[in-house]
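Q: Joint fold for the lines below.
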Amino acid sequence: MKISARNILHGQVVALTKGATTAHVRLELPGGAVVTASITNEAVDELGLAVGQEASAVIKSSDVMIAVE
Amino acid sequence: MKISARNILHGQVVALTKGATTAHVRLELPGGAVVTASITNEAVDELGLAVGQEASAVIKSSDVMIAVE
Amino acid sequence: MKISARNILHGQVVALTKGATTAHVRLELPGGAVVTASITNEAVDELGLAVGQEASAVIKSSDVMIAVE
Amino acid sequence: MKISARNILHGQVVALTKGATTAHVRLELPGGAVVTASITNEAVDELGLAVGQEASAVIKSSDVMIAVE
Amino acid sequence: MKISARNILHGQVVALTKGATTAHVRLELPGGAVVTASITNEAVDELGLAVGQEASAVIKSSDVMIAVE
Amino acid sequence: MKISARNILHGQVVALTKGATTAHVRLELPGGAVVTASITNEAVDELGLAVGQEASAVIKSSDVMIAVE
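A: Joint structure:
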């Protein structure tokens, strides 16, 4: 599958917390930055996500803001 | 200003394209990944964005998906 | 690639309009409903999108609202 | 009320799960596709959502991505 | 139509700019705050939006971030 | 920090509910409108949010829809 989302950031799952319906997944990128995703518990199960696994953060460009100091 | 968005990725502006109302800004992260943001032309002007500048991509965790191969 | 997004709706591209930086793509689903996506021109080119093509609309569940009459 | 969101997909509620603050609502469209929405428990209560009910999924076109095989 | 979106802010259209495919609409709220929406030109036409008109900004709560000084 | 998001609405926290992973924060704007944000519990803690506090709702313009009666 190829997707229109402009941002596909490869990394490794470093933390995974399931809530009642929503889970938080943390991915560490090669440069050391950590990306947090808030996804459904169901998606965590279906993708078989686990700490230590390789995965990508996928982000539509219209969901990215820019900040400057 | 401190913001609730869980993802603040520092990088450098490597490309900037303005359309009629919407601009695309590309940021290179330290690890080499490139993040594309689709923001208003107005925001580009107000932040004084330019290629070469240090900036951050700010992304709410509920806008991040996870993909696996 | 498997993605955490809960909504992957298969259909056929029935219209495609490119703007200065942003394109609108319309997909007709089997039941007749039409889904409109606003994506970058760049994504349209990279995916080689064209009218008549099979494609899927991918939507994160946190971006779906519910309305009742 | 008329809304700017380009996507209003009519269907029937086929599942409804409430979490601590966030609920997942599943809507089956006429063509058989199922759409999952992640909304607040409060919205579920205010709209009086229940399995079997007619409802619509409302999605802003900037939240729709396109994927191809 | 009743919608699950938790934020429906009533105001008056004070500016309207159409781009190639995307328009920016500015709404002034009773307290003086101005809200900017980036919507499709098509939606502007279909809703018959014009400066001076009463309208509402509709925002899903998962798209709202919080910032503190 | 200056951010590209076009909407920064100043107000006061009037309610705060934490779920398992996701919290709902309500902000009252000067004109009396109330804005609800769905953010991570972690962000609530990190920002030290509490009822009575001054805070701002930050919303990207591409996440704002317009509705008319």
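Q: Anything notable?
A: The beta strands of chain C are 2-3, 7-18, 22-28, 34-40, 54-59, 65-68. The longest strand of chain C covers residues 7-18.
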